[in-house]
Amino acid sequence: MKMKIRKGDRVRVMRGAEEDKDKVGEVIRVLPKENRVVVQGVNMVKKHQKQSQSGGKTIPAGIREFEAPIHASNVAVVDREAEKESKEARKASKAKADSAKKPAAKKTAVKKAETKPEAKKPVKKAADTKAKTAGSKKKAAEGN
């Protein structure tokens, strides 16, 4: 039978362990011969691994944690349109919050425009002070 779930699909776990029910995740791997899928972050299993060597590579000993396959009948593809609707609702509420903030943003822009000429004035003063210090150094040299 052809699998309707593909790698990269977002699925919701409908049945299984209590900690995994109603979790939404992305399909990492599809096993069509076994009619199973591996979902990211769901059905985590710990395996005690002995140290071993194969092909010149050493696999260290320890406890490995990985996602185990779930039967394809226990997951349902999440409707992307339903997700978009919820995103649009978030955007609408965000737009309302931003509209309340916009007048405050305009006020800060006006304040920044007022401070720019003031920022230029100290630069001119700094140039004047450099000229004064150079003149005072000449006077000090003449006095010595």
Structural features, described:
This protein has 144 residues and is of the alpha+beta class. The protein has a domain at 1-48 and 61-78: Roll (SH3 type barrels). The protein is 44% helix and 27% strand. It has one helix at residues 80-143, and strands at residues 10-13, 24-31, 36-39, 44-49, 52-54, 57-59, 62-67, 70-71, 75-77. The protein has a 5-stranded antiparallel beta sheet, with no helix packed on it. A two-stranded antiparallel sheet has the order 4-7. Strands 5-6 form a two-stranded antiparallel sheet. The protein starts with 9 loop residues before the first strand and ends with a helix. The model has no long low-confidence stretch (mean pLDDT 77).
Question: SSE layout and pairings?
Answer:
Layout: E1 10-13, E2 24-31, E3 36-39, E4 44-49, E5 52-54, E6 57-59, E7 62-67, E8 70-71, E9 75-77, H1 80-143
Antiparallel strand pairs: 1-2, 1-9, 2-3, 3-8, 4-7, 5-6
Main features:
44% helix, 144 residues, SH3 type barrels
CATH class of the domain at 1-48 and 61-78 reads Mainly Beta
Instruction: Tell how many strands the DSSP assignment holds.
Output: 9
Mean pLDDT across every amino acid position = 77
Helical segment count: 1
Helix content: 40-55%
The H/E string reads: EEEEEEEEEH
CATH architecture of the domain at 1-48 and 61-78: Roll
Secondary-structure-derived class? alpha+beta
Low-confidence stretches: none
For the termini, the CA-CA separation is 103 Å
Rg from Cα: 34 Å
Record the strand order, biggest sheet.
Answer: 8-3-2-1-9
Sheet of most strands: 5 strands, antiparallel
Q: Which geometry do the CA atoms define?
A: flat
